[in-house]
Design goal:
Radius of gyration: 17 Å
Distance between the termini: 20 Å
Strand content: under 5%
Order of helices and strands: HHHHHHHHH
Helix content: over 70%
Number of strands: 0
Structural class: mainly alpha
Largest sheet: none
């Protein structure tokens, strides 16, 4: 939206494609390292796909500016949650099994948000798995990539009926993002989980501030 000059809804749809492909490829590296809890990821992802497709269809009735402001507000809430943290992020066992109803409920809600505002990335899924589900941070990161890929493609399907995507630009950004994902997957195992969580929280907080500054100032005349 701010670098390529895309319309908000086109940017959201394109981001779902980029994030979906990147996550699917990044998940391979995490799976090989044993950092994916498949049961949780697949159930969460299936529920998320249903919510994401519905959100993608619903988004056509909501102005793009409102969607981006909502996106930023959710980023702030997520950043605060990640910065505050919870002991189970660091102390949880890799075999921790979440109850299926809880996984499905969280998946539907996160999926709906994904479809609405293009928030297919880890800033929603990782906290859901780490803070609410109690998975250790490295496992939450690896498992989130499975979930993100599934629901991003579902959300994209909901958008394609009403939004045109610049495929050349989308594929170029996707290629660059895939390289970053492969590098990131290797770095995850080398970084302290607590430091990773806090850094992640600050990064999301800064990005949300940028989005709010861009979207609110025309509305209030600043």
């Amino acid at each position: 939206a701010y670098v390529a000059g895309m319309d908000a809804k086109a940017a959201i749809a394109t981001s779902l494609l980029v994030v979906g492909v990147t996550s699917a490829i990044g998940a391979i590296s995490h799976a090989r390292a044993g950092r994916v809890q498949w049961r949780t990821g697949l159930i969460f992802g299936a529920a998320g796909m249903a919510g994401a497709y519905a959100g993608g269809l619903l988004a056509r009735y909501i102005p793009g500016t409102i969607l981006l402001i909502g996106f930023a507000v959710m980023m702030i809430a997520t950043a605060i949650a990640m910065l505050r943290g919870r002991k189970t992020i660091e102390t949880g066992e890799t075999g921790h099994r979440l109850p299926v109803p809880k996984i499905i409920a969280e998946g539907l809600v996160v999926g709906l948000v994904t479809g609405l505002v293009g928030a297919g990335g880890g800033f929603l899924v990782v906290p859901a798995l780490a803070l609410l589900g109690g998975l250790p941070m490295p496992i939450a990161v690896g498992t989130s990539l499975i979930v993100i890929a599934m629901k991003s493609f579902a959300g994209l399907a909901g958008y394609l009926s009403s939004v045109h995507i610049n495929w050349t630009l989308a594929l170029a950004v996707t290629a660059a993002a895939v390289i970053g994902a492969l590098i990131g997957a290797r770095l995850t195992a080398m970084i302290n989980p607590d430091s990773l969580r806090k850094t992640f929280g600050w990064f999301v907080l800064v990005m949300s501030s940028v989005i709010l500054a861009q979207e609110i100032h025309p509305a209030v005349g600043i």
